[in-house]
Amino acid sequence: MAEFTMELNDEQKEVRDWIHGFAADVVRPAAAEWDEREETPWPVIQEAAKIGLYSLDFYAQQFFDPTGLGIPMTMEELFWGDAGIALSIVGTGLAAVGVLANGTEEQIGTWVPQMYGDADDVKVAAFCSSEPDAGSDVASMRTRAVYDEAKDEWVLNGTKTWATNGGIANVHVVVAVVDPELGSKGHASFIVPPNTPGLSQGQKFKKHGIRASHTAEVVLEDVRVPGHCLLGGKDKLDERLARAREKAKAGGERVKNAAMATFEASRPAVGAMAVGTARAAYEEALEYATTREQFGRPIIDNQGVAFQLADMRTQIDAARLLVWRASWMATTGKPFTSAEGSMSKLFASETAKKVTAQAIQILGGNGFTREYPVERMHRDAAIYTIFEGTSEIQRLVIARTLSGMPIR
Ligand SMILES: Cc1cc2nc3c(=O)[nH]c(=O)nc-3n(C[C@H](O)[C@H](O)[C@H](O)COP(=O)(O)OP(=O)(O)OC[C@H]3O[C@@H](n4cnc5c(N)ncnc54)[C@H](O)[C@@H]3O)c2cc1C
Fold it and tell me: Given 1, 290, 347, 393, which is the most exposed site by the fewest CB atoms within 10 A?
């Protein structure tokens, strides 16, 4: 009989404790400062690079962990430290995954190391898909990529928005339309190498939370990239487009909205970030509730407070289990027949918003001030129900998957 275990193995525990140490000793103490500065915490990224935590090697090791728990474990611990700083550290990984998933071996070998740089000269990368008129509705994307056969170059034009590390990245991965007739099936991803003329940063957003993470528009004006920057290569793209055109002609498969159908495998990682933030706020609230006294006894002595903490912890553990299940399914190739990836992201992100709000309530007036970290955690938690597909989009994906109906 197959062995069933939910225990991390010794190696995983060691890695988890190592990340936790960095989160507790380096990330958490820097959190308030970088939240106020609203700038990329380069010195913290550099510290992470020095110990090998910010590196392609470490990320790839966790990505290819055969149990699937490497990435969720990493995310939970780092985001427990601080969400804004953690996103500055893992944001590059999101772009790297774009290349790992679609790129040739040569493209992976050439570009992914340039995304990270090295400990003496750290770099970051950006993944640019969202546009002002194409957020949840990815199929409305307008950024165009046109092939200039004579020069074997692609020419990119358009405006991307909400790009994490957009404009400050060494390497940008840009999703663009190559065949407008095919909706999201007519999209392709391109590498924009360092210092390519025509790519510039537009507005940098001032945000509600995760303020240490840089979020900006990326403007592409006649950006010319060599043919080899098309991820996967031209032959593969031509084959894929031909298949999609055949299907569209036959009136077969509906051209799906990519934001709703894909990312099922990457969503648990965002769920794990949410679990990290929720756990951090819960721990603050538990500690406070056991030490703060009113009416001559600790406030946790009141069922009204103690039961809130019981619910918070129960929901956090349930969220983690959904995240672990989905991550395990993704790694072991189990089909997401019930949109389990979306379920995990939906539940964990909503839990983080709820739990961080409860933590503020338990800390009373102190919870409402910047003297205590829970108000920052609550502001940070709001992002999880928005990026990588909003909660409404997760519900849409789950409902469509369960019913097989084109629910709108
Ligand atoms: C801090 C931050 C970082 C980000 N980083 C990146 C990044 O690195 N790269 C990148 O490409 N993108 C990034 N994004 C973009 C993010 O993925 C989008 O914001 C998200 O997909 C939602 O798109 P939108 O903001 O245009 O909202 P909209 O799609 O306009 O949605 C607005 C509201 O309408 C609801 N809604 C829309 N359609 C439906 C529907 N069919 N049914 C029910 N409700 C619906 C939504 O749920 C939401 O509540 C980032 C965003 C933020 C805020």
Answer: 1
Tally the domains of the chain.
3
Report which ligand 1 atom has the smallest distance to the Cα of 132.
Answer: 26
Give yes or no: residues 102 and 148 share one domain: no
Only one residue has tokens 């709001």, namely: 382
**What's the 294 CA to ligand 1 centre distance in angstroms?**
43
CB atoms under 10 Å from CB of 335, counted, come to 8
355 CA from centroid of ligand 1 (Å)? 22
Structural domain including 200 reads 126-250
Please, what is the end-to-end C-alpha distance for the chain in angstroms?
43
Question: 116 and 158, same structural domain?
Answer: no
Q: Look at residue 252 in the predicted model and tell me its pLDDT.
A: 55
Ligand 1 environment, Cβ below 6 A: 127-130, 135-136, 162-164, 207, 210, 215, 383, 386-390, 392-393, 396
Q: Cα dist. 185→191, 209, 245 in Å? A: 19, 33, 9
Q: What is the pLDDT of residues 379-408, one digit of tens each?
A: 999 999 999 999 999 999 999 999 999 999
Q: 395 with 294, same domain?
A: yes
For 3-26, how does the pLDDT look when each residue is reduced to its tens digit (9 = 90+)?
A: 778 889 999 999 999 999 999 999
Pocket test for ligand 1, best of 387, 396, 400, 408 (most atoms within 8 A of CB): 387
Question: Which residue's alpha carbon is nearest to atom 41 within ligand 1?
Answer: 408
For residue range 222-240, list pLDDT tens digits in order.
999 999 999 999 999 999 9
Please answer whether residues 118 and 68 qualify as being in contact, where contact means their C-beta atoms are separated by less than 8 angstroms: no
Q: Are residues 138 and 159 in the same domain?
A: yes
Beta 293-294 vs 215-226: how paired, if at all?
unpaired
Q: Do 298 and 209 belong together in one domain? A: no
Q: Please tell me whether residues 225 and 283 are part of one structural domain.
A: no
Q: What is the pLDDT of residues 233-286, one digit of tens each?
A: 999 999 999 999 998 888 755 444 444 444 777 899 999 999 999 999 999 999
Instruction: Return the bridge partners of 121, or none.
Output: 118
Q: Please say if 388 is a catalytic residue.
A: yes
Residue nearest to atom 45 of ligand 1 (CA): 392
4 in any annotated domain = no
Residue 1 domain flag? no
Q: How many CB atoms lie within 10 A of CB 101?
A: 14
Q: Same structural domain for residues 52 and 139? A: no
